[in-house]
């Protein structure tokens, strides 16, 4: 009786294994081919999105930033955190690594926009881009097949830039101690650097590029206080057959052109950047003064230099006063909502 039961169990086991093993094999083969297709689709998406830009390995970025430790953190914005990296293996130099923490659109549109824009744009007043990294998007098919078991937090995107040792302009205008206040000579140089970078984007790139987030926080300074535009996450390349770009109204509060502050899609063009540039100019000269106060002096025929940052040593230097006045008036002229002589684009 015992032998019969054992034989029955043995037969049942054979039947079960005979069904399960082939089924698992078929499922595995199916999974393999589906994964191959998905991996190919993902790889094509990244190759088209990054257009051949250098891809770094995650382990090299982690090593350079001490696993993205807080002590290496340089700053944080709405869409990313920036870390200092020392001697990145493939470059043997210090870098700034931007970890993307949030995107304003699906399909990595903002990430690809930043990679394409900055990698194809070469100018002394644009921050230098070295490459990108994707953690959780493996080119290895076996790892890719296992990726469905990974948590979403392991899917991360990174951008690698040159390290700008003197940080961003906003910190110097609003957070610096008195001994670190930028002199007018340095500020005037920064004004010209920003203008040069913006002119390049609008008039020397074809199709032209709209930055969409010009502000002191996105102006980085190197060891000699040369200024470079950074953070191209919101930038868009214009349609070569159209002077305007229809897209969602997005940008930094206080710097976004009021004409673009509407629900739904709005028209962006180079004048949208120029408005933001105008606000930045007023802040560079006047810092904490409100633009309405500056406009009041100008419209009443007063001396607009009175609105200049009180921490600046102006004295009786006529040349400095004329430079300040020109920058202030230029900033006001970039705000078409306040003046009928608003500048249509940075070339003027």
Automatic annotation (TrEMBL):
Family that this chain belongs to: In the C-terminal section; belongs to the protein kinase superfamily. Ser/Thr protein kinase family.
Membrane topology of this protein: Single-pass type I membrane protein
Domain of life, per lineage: Eukaryota
Protein keywords: ATP-binding, Cell membrane, Glycoprotein, Kinase, Membrane, Nucleotide-binding, Receptor, Serine/threonine-protein kinase, Signal, Transferase, Transmembrane, Transmembrane helix
PANTHER family: PTHR27007
Organism: Oryza glumipatula
Protein kinase domain ranges (all copies): 68-348
Primary location class: membrane
Gene3D superfamilies: Phosphorylase Kinase, domain 1, Transferase(Phosphotransferase) domain 1
Binding site for ATP: 99
Name the UniProt record assigns to this protein: Protein kinase domain-containing protein
Pfam families noted in UniProt: PK_Tyr_Ser-Thr
CC annotations in GO: plasma membrane
Ranges that cross the membrane: 12-33
Biological-process GO terms, alphabetical: defense response to oomycetes
InterPro entries: Kinase-like_dom_sf, L-type_Lectin-RKs, Prot_kinase_dom, Protein_kinase_ATP_BS, Ser-Thr/Tyr_kinase_cat_dom, Ser/Thr_kinase_AS
GO MF annotations in UniProt: ATP binding; protein serine/threonine kinase activity
Subcellular location(s) per record: Cell membrane
Keyword Heme: no
